[in-house]
Amino acid sequence: MYNYQIFALSIFIISPTINAKPDCSPLLDDLKKVQSKLRSGYSVKQGEKLKTKEKKMKELWWQCRNNKLSKTEKVKLNKRLKKQNISKND
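Now predict its structure.
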């Protein structure tokens, strides 16, 4: 009985760290910037570029939100978060 309680307790303690999601706020901020540019005036060529960029940003943000980013994207996101934290502290 005692071993079962320790096992159950350890699952509750360890599980939040295993399932922790990355901070996706930089990706969401970028998506909002692109969407605001799409609402403003632009040429046809710029509009096509913005639409493809928006599609890519939505996909990245959605993958991040669902914790399905590739390892390379996670590394890029972590570097970006560290850079933002350094600039905020200065």
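The CA atoms of residues 23 and 34 lie 19 Å apart.
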